[in-house]
Specification:
The complex is a heterodimer of chains A (about 350) and B (about 60). With about 350 residues, chain A is of the alpha+beta class. Chain A has ten helices and eight strands. Chain A is elongated and about 95 Å long. Chain B has about 60 residues and is mostly helical. Chain B has one domain. The longest helix of chain B has about 35 residues. The N and C termini of chain B lie far apart (about 35 Å). Classes of the chains: A alpha+beta (about 350), B mainly alpha (about 60). Chain B: This is DUF4175 domain-containing protein. Chain B: Keywords: Membrane, Transmembrane, Transmembrane helix.
Chain lengths: ~350, ~60
């Protein structure tokens, strides 16, 4: 998951963008929208999104209707200059990995399960911290007793690798748990904040004639200078009301690019109805994503992330090894004492 | 009295380095998110520190 971008690219699942002459003009968003519908006749647009690292690309999300099963949504990338389709997004082996990592293809129960596992992971780390003192209080930091038994050697490595990765592992574990419940929190936001924003327009039907996308995005950008659109949600999708477009704006730093700001715009006229900040719990979800995947500090950070993951696996493996060794020792000890008791008879 | 002080010194000997590493890790994790390019360089140091320690522990006699 850390290297999913690179793996997608290497396997050919990332869209290949044409190079355009500097100063070439991008097509209107309406033209991109028409191209997306022409590409999937009979479907409707749900979202349009922009990748920060691919300014010449527009991603379109289409499905049979705005309320169709999200798993059947088609995500296709288009060239912003020519409206030419450049490839499907969210396909290939990395999607399988992502599903296995988030819900194991079990939907919400799978996410709850993974969240629980993440929580247990954090409990295991804390228990390790508690055991660190009795096992190391007579040793110097990072003492590795190479001349002793294999068990002691692994114990020392377990303690060292564990103790120096505690903070990182707790952050990755904690942000993973937050992510597991992201869908739940999104639901809370929809039922509360979003519903309140859309309340004055309750009962209005889904617009039959949608406003121009260029006008919608232009109006949205005017509300907050310096921010760019991350994505547009079309009326009726889970990210907006049945009557509104929602344009989610983002900044350009690693932090502000995650903290999107929703602008609600009338579906028919494209006028701004309301802007708001996301609630703290949704901001926490958005900020927790990079801290879980480690994809926010360039390639060196990704490599560090991968190595720390290997350390954590070694800690888990050596922990299991130490536990089984201790168990078999205890059992052998119990057998021995039972044998001794039998030989010399019960002491009266 | 001196026993208490000895215990405290021992506690710092055991937990001192892990605490410093933990603080630097956390600072690194956040700096790449909050402080632009310099923050990113600091993150490579702070978050990468455990790797340097493991290399050191493995290579030393």
């Amino acid at each position: 998951m850390i290297f999913h971008h690179e793996i997608d690219e290497a396997l050919g699942y990332a869209p290949k963008m044409d190079v355009h002459a500097p100063g070439a003009a991008k097509l209107s968003l309406d033209a991109i929208g028409r191209a997306a519908i022409a590409d999937h006749p009979g479907s409707v647009l749900l979202y349009m999104a922009w990748d920060k690292d691919e300014p010449g690309m527009v991603s379109t999300f289409t499905n049979a209707s705005v309320t169709s099963d999200p798993q059947t949504t088609v995500v296709k990338a288009f060239d912003a200059y020519t409206a030419k389709p450049v490839g499907l997004l969210g396909t290939g082996p990395m999607l399988v990995m992502l599903r296995l990592h988030t819900d194991m293809y079990l939907g919400l129960p799978g996410k709850w399960f993974m969240g629980l596992m993440g929580f247990l992971f954090m409990v295991a780390i804390i228990s390790g911290v508690v055991l660190y003192w009795p096992f190391t209080r007579r040793l110097n930091f990072a003492a590795i007793r190479k001349q002793k038994s294999r068990r002691v050697l692994w114990l020392d490595w377990h303690n060292l690798l564990g103790v120096i990765t505690i903070v990182w592992a707790l952050v990755v574990g904690g942000t993973g748990v937050i992510n597991a419940y992201a869908e739940v929190m999104l639901g809370i936001w929809q039922r509360n904040e979003l519903a309140a924003m859309a309340a004055p327009y309750a009962g209005k039907p889904t617009p039959t004639q949608l406003a121009s996308l260029d006008k919608v995005v232009g109006n949205a950008m005017k509300t907050t200078p310096g921010m760019d659109p991350a994505f547009i949600a079309f009326p009726g999708t889970p990210f907006t009301s049945t009557h509104h477009f929602a344009v989610f704006l983002r900044g350009d730093t690693p932090l502000t690019s995650r903290l999107v700001k929703p602008v609600l715009l009338d579906g028919e006229t494209g006028d701004v109805s309301d802007t708001s900040e996301l609630p703290t719990y949704l901001k926490a979800v958005l900020v927790s994503q990079p801290l879980h995947f480690g994809d926010y500090g360039g390639m060196p950070l990704k490599i560090i992330w991968a190595l720390l993951t290997v350390f954590t696996i070694i800690v888990l493996g050596s922990g299991l090894y130490l536990w089984t060794v201790k168990r078999s020792k205890v059992r052998r000890g119990a057998r021995l004492s039972a044998g001794v008791t039998a030989a010399i008879g019960p002491s009266s | 009295m001196s026993e208490v002080r000895e215990r405290r010194a021992n506690w710092w000997r055991v937990f001192g380095a892990p605490i410093v590493i933990g603080v630097l890790s956390l600072a690194g994790l956040l700096s790449a998110l909050l402080a632009g390019d310099p923050g990113r360089y600091f993150a490579w140091f702070g978050v990468g520190l455990p790797i340097a320690i493991v290399v050191w522990a493995y290579c030393r006699k």
